[in-house]
Amino acid sequence: MSGPHLDAEAPIPYSNPMTEPAPHTHHAIDYIEITVPDLPAAKAFYTAAFGWSFTDYGPDYAGIAGETREQGGLCKGDVRPGGPLVVLYSRDLDATRDAVERAGGTISEEIFEFPGGRRFQFRDPGGNELAVWCSG
User: What class is the 32-81 domain?
Assistant: First the structure.
């Protein structure tokens, strides 16, 4: 693989004002995003059923608070076929995007910015959709 060698074991700090920093692992499953048609109803359900708490990021998104950092989010929208979106972490988003394409993946959403980072989405050769994000 071309590009700089990335140490997969080196922790990447996560900045969340409500929790303590925790490491991210390069190319590991890092976050699960659950699409819901009704955000307030979904928050009420997950709070009552599992005791989850949330950080609101506007009317259409709420982060799922974990013990050491956010572990997922609820995203208002149409429920996608295949269920929740699995999100991987990368220290070099551009290099990871290129590697996904070289390996036969199809980019379904080009790199975009969001509060806290950047991300893209892709489909693997079997049709599964995943996302990859990086901080900053």
Answer: alpha beta
Cα→Cα distances 81→13, 35, 46, 65, 115, Å: 32, 10, 21, 25, 26
CATH number corresponding to 90-136: 3.10.180.10
Q: DSSP string spanning the chain?
A: --S----TTS-EE---TTS---EE-TTSEEEEEEEES-HHHHHHHHHHHH---EEE-STTEEEEE-SSSEEEEEEESPPPTTSSEEEEE-S-HHHHHHHHHHTT-EEEEEEEEETTEEEEEEE-TTS-EEEEEEE-
pTM value?
0.69
66-115 confidence digits (pLDDT tens)? 888 899 999 999 887 778 999 999 999 999 999 999 999 999 999 999 98
